[in-house]
Design goal:
Length: 273
């Protein structure tokens, strides 16, 4: 079966082959995704935090799957590049239910997903990845699964123990069907190099204080660099600052820093699709 998104799925997979790092400035709604695409992004990935916030929910598997699917569909409608959806932990601790969620995300237009172990066990994420791959096969698409392990992010271990545990988990996720490994929180060049060598999967890292610069990451073998919630958080902070000033001053000048897009610019961007 040839899925309508098969060409984008192939393109997304090829973007992880190098030689350049795939940079993802994660989007949170259709407008932000269209803007990011217009700036030259080769693919768009969502930030689970940003998507949750834009729908009035906190991050952390609290977002209803119906709203996730609706957000993915709205983004897919306005962009022409591959789209990957962050589905957190799959919004369930039951691996059997993950297949339905993944099917809905695929039907909405995603050709890749992030799925994380979080505070859960590696056994649980392995089972979720297996269910994810089964759902993708039924849908007829080569879904790209980016498996996130939170050993560094959550401080589950430190030093050599953290490195060994990350490599061990990544190996298990690879065997379960993952196509890449995402290790947010890792910043030391030596650790990044060892993870690349220890796991035969493309490595995704998160923009983080102390992370090596692009050229060094590329030399270390990193294949994907994500902004995570950073761009969405920056938008929230700018909105907070502008709204605070406007409420206090009642002046339209307080709503702009002089470098923003005009309403005409934004409308033109969205009419283009």
């Amino acid at each position: 079966m040839n899925h309508p998104s098969s060409a984008r799925a192939r393109m997304f997979r090829q973007l992880h082959a190098g030689p350049d790092i795939l940079i993802l400035a994660n989007a949170w709604d259709a407008g932000s995704a269209r803007l990011i695409e217009s700036l030259g992004a080769r693919a768009v990935a969502t930030t689970s935090a940003g998507v949750a916030w834009s729908n009035g929910y906190p991050d952390g598997d609290a977002l209803p799957v119906s709203l996730l699917a609706a957000t993915i569909a709205s983004i897919a409608r306005v962009i022409g590049v591959p789209l990957s959806a962050d589905i957190e932990g799959g919004y369930s601790s039951d691996p059997a239910s993950i297949g339905e969620t993944v099917t809905r995300v695929i039907d909405a237009g995603a050709v890749g997903i992030n799925i994380e172990d979080g505070a859960g066990t590696p056994d649980l994420l392995c089972a979720k990845i297996e269910q994810t791959k089964c759902a993708a096969t039924r849908s007829g698409i080569d879904l790209f699964v980016n498996a996130r392990t939170d050993v560094y992010l959550r401080g589950l271990a430190t030093g050599q123990v953290a490195l060994d545990e990350t490599i061990a988990r990544a190996g298990r996720y690879r065997n379960a069907g993952a196509d890449s490994i995402f290790v947010p929180g890792v910043v030391e060049a030596g650790d990044i190099r060892d993870i690349v060598k220890g796991v035969s999967l493309p490595l995704n890292v998160l923009s983080w204080p102390g992370l090596p610069a692009y050229d060094e990451l590329r030399a270390l073998g990193v294949r994907r660099l994500s902004a995570g919630a950073a761009v969405a958080a920056a938008a929230w902070n700018q909105a907070r600052s502008s709204a605070t000033a406007f409420l206090a001053q009642g002046s339209s000048e307080s709503r702009s820093d002089g470098g923003t897009m005009s309403t005409r610019d934004i409308n033109a961007l969205l009419r283009g699709k």
